[in-house]
Design brief:
Blueprint lengths: L14 H12 L2 H13 L3 H29 L3 H11 L7 H33 L8 H12 L2 H19 L3 H30 L2 H9 L8 H13 L7 H6 L8 H29 L8 H14 L3 H35 L3 H22 L7 E3 L2 E3 L3 H28 L2 H8 L5 H26 L4
Antiparallel strand pairs: 1-2
Length: 459
């Protein structure tokens, strides 16, 4: 048995602290609008069933593998992969998998921070009553004026980055853990309040039917591909966040049970968001359009027409910020830990360096919506976001699926059976271990390869 290592950054106080942190990493802006919408469009309950199968066959096995790698290495993703590759007698080039994860988190946060800044700006708009009585033209102008102003976008981007780095600078227990133990219960509470409001004031029966009525006639091969992709992307896999969070996980905590809890909480948030959003959309005869437009242009119209709209809109955008904030701290943590462990920086200095670098790259996204906007075609689709779309394509379509694929290959084929059984600690449920090993060796690599081929337009 390998000598158990300890992270120099400390560890979570309990399994629940890790579950909250990993759920916070997984729950992001996409959960609030994307999952409910693709569920309704692809057969409701029938799609949810396919999605849950994909989570169990693809998402959870890779999450278990990524947590396992993190806990076994106990360092930043680059050094963890370096250590584990050496331990298994494999090529030192496996450290590039860790490097790709660190870079992916860095790139994603650079543009994610700008989008999260929109939610911060909309809290102010909501409190001021800007949406009260507004029609589509007025709301569209509010959004258009925001993204057309580099100065305003830069201000909110800067504020969100400062919020993120202040948490990360405080360390694992005092920063990350304390933040998620406040943010995640807060997010769940706001969601429940919004669902209650949707029951009272929205077209709740219509919303529930849209989300849960099982229409198997709408299930196509495209629906299955969509379910596979979302099952992978929703759990924040392949970007180093889960690996670094795993490095702080106490040795006596079950990785398998914890992974199921995180996946369940992530799915619950997405479904509750749908139960809150769509009754409000339908009662106002609005279209449940996909994309950020639902959040920033469709919902504000509904909020403006409904009783208590100012309070509901404010709660909704506070919830969005909570979701974005809990994800952001996990995205930058791998880069910060690398600077501490490899470059010998203090945690505060590492946060300053990583935060400024991310902020500077984010300026490209700020300008992508106005001064530096340009159009290009990728995988048959026209993109108009300039550098923002390029970074999004690079990370979501290439780096994350490739990272997930390589994690599965390393855990399933490079690591010895003894190493994986030792770290997963599944001796009492050996049949469960065999199922995981089969999935991570044969099913998940094929599935993630298909996801990547679809993402780049080959399928």
């Amino acid at each position: 048995m390998t000598t158990k290592r300890q992270s120099v950054h400390g560890q979570w106080s309990s399994r629940w602290a890790f579950v909250l942190a990993a759920t916070g990493s997984a729950v992001g802006l996409g959960n609030i609008w994307k999952f409910p919408y693709i569920t309704g469009e692809n057969g409701g309950g029938a799609f949810v069933l396919v999605y849950l199968i994909c989570v169990c066959a693809i998402g959870i096995p890779i999450m278990m593998a990524e947590i396992m790698l993190g806990r076994r290495g106990r360092q930043n993703p680059i050094m963890t992969m370096e250590i584990l590759a050496k331990e298994e007698g494999a090529s030192e080039h496996w450290r590039l998998l860790g490097l790709m994860g660190v870079l992916a988190g860095f790139f994603i946060l650079s543009y994610y921070s700008v989008i999260a800044g929109w939610a911060l700006a909309y809290i102010v708009q909501s409190v001021s009553g800007a949406f009260t009585g507004s029609d589509a033209k007025t709301v569209s102008k509010i959004f258009g004026d925001l993204i057309a102003s580099p100065e305003r976008l830069l201000f909110w981007h800067t504020l969100f980055m400062v919020m993120t780095m202040l948490v990360v600078a405080r360390g694992v227990r005092s920063g990350l853990e304390k933040a998620v133990t406040l943010l995640m219960p807060g997010l769940f509470l706001i969601l429940v309040l919004l669902v209650g409001y949707a029951m009272a004031e929205g077209s709740f029966a219509h919303g529930i039917e849209f989300l849960f009525a099982a229409d198997f006639s709408k299930l196509t091969w495209g629906s299955v591909l969509t379910a596979m992709g979302h099952a992978f992307f929703t759990l924040s896999l392949g970007m180093g966040a889960i690996m670094i969070y795993g490095s702080y996980l106490p040795q006596d905590v079950s990785i398998a049970k914890t992974s199921f809890l995180v996946a369940g909480a992530d799915t619950a948030v997405a479904l509750l968001a749908g139960m809150a959003i769509f009754p409000i959309v339908f009662v106002n005869n609005l279209e449940p359009g996909a994309g950020p437009g639902l959040v920033f242009q469709t919902l504000p119209i509904a909020f403006g027409q409904m009783p208590g709209g100012v309070i509901v809109a404010t709660l909704f955008f506070v919830m969005l910020v909570f979701a974005a904030w809990s994800s952001a701290i996990s995205l930058i943590e791998p880069a910060v830990t690398w600077l501490v462990e490899r470059k010998g920086m203090t945690r505060h200095m590492a946060c300053v360096v990583a935060g400024i670098a991310t902020w500077l790259l984010g300026i490209m996204t700020v300008l992508s919506f106005n001064k530096w906007a340009f159009t290009f075609t990728f995988a048959g689709e026209e993109k108009t976001g300039g550098a923002f779309d390029i970074l999004d394509i690079l990370t979501a379509n290439i780096m994350l699926p490739l990272g997930g694929l390589l994690i599965a290959v390393f855990a399933g084929w490079i690591m010895s059976k003894k190493s994986t059984t030792d770290e997963l600690g599944m001796e009492q449920t050996y049949s469960g271990y065999l199922i995981w090993r089969f999935l991570v060796r044969y099913i998940t690599p094929v599935a993630v390869s298909i996801i990547m081929l679809k993402a780049v337009g080959i399928l």
